[in-house]
Amino acid sequence: MTVNTDRTEKAYKIEILFQERMIRNLQHWQSIFSLLTGVGVLFIYFFKNKNIWFFGSGIALCVIGILVILTVGYAIYTGKKNVTRVIERYDSVEKKI
């Protein structure tokens, strides 16, 4: 019986570490897309009266960047809730042992 609980405990710890690492990866992606949005803002600012293609590209980069930032932010939010649920479940399993 102890072998099974040791496996369960190890599996919970591995899952918690994996999900926390994936949340950190999502946060890195979110910062990359915020940088992309910033480049779009610069394109809009510098090319508003000079080049319509760069101006349009800036608008597209801003819109796409903001949508991706919001989507990744929601994924981070739900991921953190999921990690909290896994930790609570791990604590409840640990108390039963």
TrEMBL record:
It comes from the Bacteria. Keywords: Membrane, Sugar transport, Transmembrane, Transmembrane helix, Transport. The chain crosses the membrane at residues 29-47, 53-77. This is PTS sugar transporter.
